Amino acid sequence: MSGFGPKSFFLAIPIILCLITPSVLLSESKTKEKAGAEKTPIVINADSLEVDDTKKVVTFKGHVDVRESDLTMTCEKLLLYYTDKPTDSGSEDAGIKIDKIVATGDVKVIRPDGGVAAAEQAIYYRADEKIVLTGNPKVKQGQDFVEGAKITVFIRENRSIVEGSKDKKVKAVYYPRGDMGVPRGQ
Fold it and tell me: What are phi and psi of 124, to 5 degrees?
């Protein structure tokens, strides 16, 4: 990389955000499902669990830890909203379908490549494949980061929007890389 101009800076922001989204996970899991491979389970640990089948919500409270393939999320409370899937006789896919997930309280989404998203609240809309981070959201990859009042990640579109507010401007910090991909000055 010979120079670093404003155009490079603005191109880097979506790249930073995309590094921590589960888009790779989703595309890999869809490919595996089509190939007939086993589905990766979602493992959720918490201090307590409550199921309200009338409201179609599962509530996890206290030290919530979610793990799926190469994605880890921690928070204090997680609400998993679901709907019943139509059942076909003999179908292995019968049961519930996740509608949306609402995580609150010191939310952190961690990827093994070092990407981290942090916020007070994260809402994942499964049908839209969209994650909305609010409450001092910050997305970080290495030393690079972006923050604002609200960060929306459109997983399917590989696109992100960082919005500011009257009280909090959008801020992005990108450290230019040398020829070997290492931040300059290190």
Answer: -105, 120
Q: According to the 3-state scheme, what is the secondary structure of the chain?
A: CCCCCHHHHHHHHHHHHHCCCCHHHHHHHHHHHHHCCCCCCEEEECCEEEEECCCCEEEEEEEEEEEECCEEEEEEEEEEEEEECCCCCCCCCCCEEEEEEEEEEEEEEECCCCEEEEEEEEEEECCCCEEEEECCCEEEECCEEEECCEEEEECCCCEEEEECCCCCCCEEECCCECCCCCECCC
pLDDT at 184 over 60: no
Q: How far apart are CA 26 and CA 181, in angstroms?
A: 27
Query: Is 70 exceeded by the pLDDT of residue 87?
Result: no
Could you give the CA distance from residue 140 to residue 45 in angstroms, rounded to a whole number?
25
Instruction: Walk me through the domains of the chain, giving residue ranges and CATH numbers.
Output: 6-28+42-86+94-173 (2.60.450.10)
Residues 6+ positions from 138 with CB-CB distance below 8 Å: 117, 118, 119, 145, 146, 147
Using CA atoms, how far apart are residues 35 and 168, in angstroms rounded to an integer? Answer: 46
| pTM reported for the whole predicted model | 0.71
Mean pLDDT (whole number) for 142-169: 91
117: left (phi over 0), alpha (psi -120 to 50) or beta: beta
